[in-house]
Amino acid sequence: MRQNSKIFETALKANTQAAYDAVGGTSSASGLLGVGISALSKYASQDEQWKENFIRIDLAVDLDRRSPHPFIVTTMARELGFALVRDDLPAGDVKLCPMSLLKLDRVLDDVVDEVANALSDGHADAYERKEIRKRIASAKVALARLDAMMIGGDE
Asked: What is the pLDDT of residues 93-117, one digit of tens each?
């Protein structure tokens, strides 16, 4: 029997979906990984019937390698009490400037706007929650880029 916490399992599934979204969705991830959409959907599903189905480690590494941020491996590292630190930051790839901050602001505003629209009737339905999660995935990518700059990027 696994010794994983419910919080970790929920986070792993949510970040598996975030990784799919970061490469263009489950269908795109399927094409990149050579794994069927139905199998990938189970790995990210919070549904009770798929609660024991998680992405294989080889697929997780391949998917994270293709994504702008290692969502799945980061989740695993955090569960073990570690943080990932990029080994070789590309020098000069990204500059912290007013325009990049405005882009980040727009991405974060998209999350807030999506949540506000969804809750305008007092309830977020399944479709609205899915759209919110897409915006959150985009925000995670943008924030991961900013985090990488803060670790050792632009002086």
From this structure: 556 778 778 888 888 999 999 999 9
In the numeric block, which tokens belong to residue 68? 């702008």
Q: What is the pLDDT of residue 134?
A: 86
Distances (CA, A) of 134 to 90, 128, 137, 140: 27, 10, 5, 10
pTM (predicted TM-score): 0.61
